[in-house]
Amino acid sequence: MFNFIAAPTIFASFKEVVKTAPSDRTAHLPLAPDANEEQQKQLANALAGAAVGPIFPKFFLLQTICGVLSLIPALGWRNQPGRWHYRRIIIIAFALLTVLIAQPISNKVSALRVERFNPETAIAATEAFGQWHLVSLLLSFVTALLAGFALALAANLPERKASC
């Protein structure tokens, strides 16, 4: 939801807000009225980044909790007949691992986001930001794929034994 719907919508929205300011979305106040198109793009990206940045600590905490809560029952099913129960453990464990790897990378990207708008560090920080942001996006994509695959495996859960 966040990666594929919320974040792209937020970034597109800020581009539109900066482009159409002043408007009701800016309380009818101008945003950088003398800015050229490139400066408006930078402003929109900076504002959108400032909007989504604070979400990430909670996002990663939620992903970690979901990963752990998924892995616990999967570990209990490891001795069940059928090869998919063992594969489920591997898939969920890898998804959780990608979350744990991505969290410090996200922190680095957030720090570089601020540095790239500092005139003293802008060039180096912009290049590093691009590289680390791409790594972060790829890890997020892999996490979403693995979580989706693990969710699909929910259709093949072990049989419950009848209780007395």
Topology at a glance:
Layout: H1 2-20, H2 37-52, H3 56-76, H4 83-115, H5 122-152
Helix pairs in contact: 1-2, 3-4, 4-5
Q: Give me the strand/helix succession.
A: HHHHH
Total beta strands:
0
Structural Rg: 21 Å
Largest sheet: none
Helix content: over 70%
- The fraction of residues assigned to DSSP E strands is under 5%
**Unreliable spans:** none
The dominant shape is elongated
Task: Kindly report how far apart the N and C termini lie.
Answer: 42 Å
Explain how this protein is built:
With 164 residues, the chain is mostly helical. The model has no long low-confidence stretch (mean pLDDT 90).
Compose a concise summary of this entry.
With 164 residues, the protein is mainly α. Helices cover 73% and strands 0% of the residues.
Features:
164 residues; mainly alpha; elongated
